[in-house]
Design goal:
Strand content: 35-45%
Structural class: mainly beta
Low-confidence stretches: none
Oligomer: single chain
Shape: globular
Strand order of the largest sheet: 1-2-3-4-5-6-7-8-9-10-11-12
Helix content: under 10%
């Protein structure tokens, strides 16, 4: 999935799944909110799991980092921290700002930029969903792509 130049993130269906497809509309994966497990008093955070389509391996997970703050933590399939999403800011695993999301138009388009101003990706709203286009600067970096995809998947959630 992360080898693609752009991804189409579809809207949630009745089961809560969001499809992720590629350039020719081929399914590449899906994202879904895992149900909370355990007793209600343990306050387990809800987890967004992103899976690839073929054999459905886990790609990464996103969960609230601390219950009282809206920060989200992204972990890879092995459970290692990759980075954090803090509103419009995206940080790496040690807390350095990697990108900020900027609105570029009133119709839902936005851009992810490094603090130095270089574009890392663009997001556009279409009738089929959100189109995430990766800039050449992130092509060799799957972790940066994971963070950008997670930011698009979390849009509209608190």
């Amino acid at each position: 999935m992360l080898e693609q130049h752009f991804l189409l993130v579809g809207p949630s269906d009745e089961a809560g799944l969001r499809s992720i497809s590629g350039a020719a509309g081929q399914p590449l994966g899906y994202a879904w909110w895992r149900p909370r497990r355990g007793p209600w008093w343990r306050l387990r955070p809800q987890v967004l799991a992103v899976h690839e389509h073929e054999d459905e391996p886990l790609l990464f997970t996103v969960r609230r980092w601390w219950p009282l703050l809206p920060w989200r933590e992204l972990r890879d399939a092995e459970g290692r921290p990759v980075g954090y999403l803090r509103g419009a800011s995206i940080s790496d695993r040690i807390g350095r700002c990697v990108a900020c999301r900027e609105k570029t138009s009133e119709i839902g388009a936005s851009c992810f930029r490094q603090p130095a101003g270089r574009a890392l990706g663009e997001v556009a709203s279409t009738a089929e969903g959100m189109v995430l286009t990766f800039a050449p600067a992130v092509e060799p970096d799957p972790f940066a792509k994971m963070l950008l995809l997670a930011a698009v998947l979390l849009e509209g959630t608190s």
